[in-house]
């Protein structure tokens, strides 16, 4: 098996674990986009525990780890349009029926009130922690660079600049999942 590529020198921060103070904690592992299953799972977990036990947002912690082929979920609309990520991920825009040219997981669709709480923007505002895999982001940068002729390091930097606000990269998705478990989160594969 080939060795994993060396990551560029990055500073990683695991201070996010300090915010995991709720009695109930879970980590949702998302190695695939799978139409946003990880978002639905995190939403359902939080809603059901809050409803059944009459709890607030701070009582029910959720961590979503986006890794492997799910990295497009944590990139902004600019990257979705520029690199045709809808076509790459096989995700169609519900409004147009065409390949998505914006990140459909980021903002709530105002015409669809039923699924507004599933948007990453909403979840982040409610205290859900969203972590990305730096290793998978680097791999995606290499794939895009091979199509565009750009340098992989420059593409990795571009992808990092276009992460959704409040999303934090971790050394790897595996590291992030394990770190969340050490912080008391129960594991759930979400694809």
Explain what the structure shows.
- The protein is an alpha/beta fold and 191 residues long.
- Helices cover 36% and strands 14% of the residues.
- It contains 7 helices and 5 strands.
- It has helices at 37-53, 77-82, 85-89, 120-125, 134-148, 152-161, 173-182, and strands at residues 24-30, 60-66, 129-133, 168-170, 186-189.
- Strands 4-3-2-1-5 form a 5-stranded parallel sheet, with helices on both faces.
- Strand 1 (24-30), helix 1 (37-53) and strand 2 form a beta-alpha-beta unit.
- Helix 5 (134-148) crosses helix 6.
- The radius of gyration is 16 Å and the shape is globular.
- The model has no long low-confidence stretch (mean pLDDT 92).
Task: Give a quick rundown of the structure.
The chain is an alpha/beta fold. The protein has helices at residues 37-53, 77-82, 85-89, 120-125, 134-148, 152-161, 173-182, and strands at residues 24-30, 60-66, 129-133, 168-170, 186-189.
């Amino acid at each position: 098996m080939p060795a994993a590529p060396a990551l560029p020198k990055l500073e990683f921060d695991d201070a996010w674990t300090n915010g995991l103070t709720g009695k109930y904690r879970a980590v949702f592992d998302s190695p695939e986009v799978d139409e946003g299953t990880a978002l639905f799972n995190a939403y359902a977990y939080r809603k059901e525990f809050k409803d059944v036990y009459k709890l607030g947002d701070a009582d029910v912690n959720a961590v979503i780890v986006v890794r492997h082929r799910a990295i497009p979920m944590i990139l902004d609309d600019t990257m979705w349009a520029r690199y045709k990520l809808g076509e790459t991920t096989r995700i169609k825009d519900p409004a147009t029926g065409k390949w998505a040219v914006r990140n459909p997981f980021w903002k709530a669709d105002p015409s669809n009130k039923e699924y507004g709480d599933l948007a990453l923007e909403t979840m982040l505002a409610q205290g859900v922690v969203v972590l990305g895999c730096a290793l998978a982001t680097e791999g995606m940068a290499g794939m895009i660079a091979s199509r565009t002729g750009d340098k992989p390091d420059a593409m990795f930097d571009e992808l990092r600049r276009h992460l959704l606000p409040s999303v934090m990269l971790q050394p790897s998705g595996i590291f992030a999942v394990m770190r969340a478990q050490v912080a008391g989160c129960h594991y759930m594969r979400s694809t």
